[in-house]
Amino acid sequence: MSTDTSSDPPSEPPAPSVLIAFAGHRRIATGTRDEVLAVLRAQADGATAVVFEQDSGTRVELDLRPEGSGPEHAPDEAPARGVGRPKLGVVAREVTLLPRHWDWLSRQPGGASVALRRLIDEARRNYAERDSVRAAREAAYRVMSLLGSELPGFEEASRSLFAGERARFDSYVSDWPADLAQYVRQLAEPGWDASTPPSA
């Protein structure tokens, strides 16, 4: 079902991501994609650096080959035109539901697409704090696992992170290399309960 009678306003273009690159436990670059690429290409250990999107802790793969040296795409390899309204930020993807779900959606004003967007927006508002806490803890753990799994106290720090025990978490990562400790603390910050004070 693809009925879509919404009149959502055009979405704002996303701000350029800030990336952060580590060589081992040492931060060697922070900046836009082009800025980080320039630093990594100029450094001997740039090829082995691990790069993350700074705010989310998501790993980013960068092509360190010089500009213009990548494979060229043939003209007939242009991506096929997708379904949806991409100029408005509306993208069509497959959703699998049971018949009773489709039946309920078909009776909603505006059709299935409008109803689903409304339900998702309501859930995002209702669970925003919980989702923010979970995302922060998962982001910190993602970086810890990639860069610090061999460091002393890693297992204990991980358990403390997901248990919401800020003071214990800080005590374990305080002995880690400074750049890594600072970054995982930054990522974990939204994951602490508002009533949990920072450690002294």
Automatic annotation (TrEMBL):
It holds the Pfam family DUF2239. Residues 63-83 are annotated as: Disordered. This is DUF2239 family protein. It comes from Xenophilus arseniciresistens. The lineage of its organism: Bacteria, Pseudomonadati, Pseudomonadota, Betaproteobacteria, Burkholderiales.
